[in-house]
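Bench notes, bay 3.
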Amino acid sequence: MNIDDISQRLMTSVRVGLAIINADDMKPVFSNEHFKKWFQVEEDGTLGLLGEQEELVASITGLEPGGTFNFDTTLKVRRRELSLSVHISCLESDSLPLVLVEVHNNTRLKEMESMIQSYSKMVERNERDLKREKERAEKLLLNVMPKSVFEELKAFGVTAPTRYDEASVLMLDFIAFTEMSIADDPAAIVSELNDIFTNFDRIVEQFGCERIKTIGDAYMAVSGLPESNPDHARNIAKAALLFIRYLEQRNKTHKNAWLARVGIASGPVIGSIVGVHKYVYDIFGPAVNLAARMERRSDPMQVTLCSPMSDNLKDIFRLIEKGEEEIKGFGKLTLYNLDPSSAGHLDAF
């Protein structure tokens, strides 16, 4: 095999389109297989797609000796679009004005770049969706547990039950709710209840309390946890009075009159997350039981409490004594109602 044969094989085997073109008549003096396939150059020298490349033709015919020119173009070969990078250089020749055309097929690279870009966009979209779902999940969890408990759960994956020696609990229940929901449109009643509970949440937040849960038409809130607060009894009493005042004002402008009984009590409380797959934060203990018993003994639109909680409230609230009663699990206790006029010095809700 002579040098010419070796050169011919090399020129044919490289994965680059190569051609030497006569700039006068735009006919290839030489072209390898890749160049012929891409530009459909016939054996007789017919230009095929080469003649349709106006930028290529203009650069070849206008190229000065020793000059070079680069550009990118696309060709449609057998229903497939090719992305090509073209480098043209003028060859020194005494006889003919020859130019060397090198064509690199960047199609696969472009396709990979497109795939990477598409994948990157998909990853970004998935990350945005994941972030939205995470924020949604966190928002839902914050609706069922105090923020500090949520932060502990988020950091460690578990939370330990915590005992709070001093806390105050509020229990509220509506009178004749079942009859109201049967007599009227259930959807409208639930919508009204949702509106009321939303305003209760605002009142609770206003006084640094925590809404623990709602069960049907019942509402439970607590003060003094998860962060201890020496004013827990006063704060829960203020919230209770504003609950009643809010309902009184609302009943003046709405068809349905919502009447509630409220009980409040102070004492030890245990707070803990209950459940494994469905998290619920709940509280247990003497204060919870006593608040429930006070609510059952309360009159409509009254806030009922008992000693010794009354000792923490009598200096800033007016209390109306109801007398002694035997309370299951607690013995004889003196019961009081919070005088509604005590709410007069509170900021209007």
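Next record in the batch:
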Amino acid sequence: MGGIKVYIPDELEKKFRETAMRLFGYGRGSLSIASEKAFSAWLSEVSEVLEFAENIEDPVEAIYGMLSHVKKTGVELQHEASKIRAGKTIEYKSSP
């Protein structure tokens, strides 16, 4: 069995330990079981994305026509996006 040493934020480590022990018991091995499940879930998720990305031969061709239903021009969409971002910035700065 292999070993991996990882460095994560203290708060994440605390939550992970607490959850793993509550779920798998407070004895030895609970962190290993939880880690194995977390690694497996992450690998499964990332593997799907990588497999999809590797099957795309031409990325431009893959996205060509995706916005054909939009009636606005590219410039109009850029202006709209900048207004949305500006509004979110103002909301963020004014929040406590």
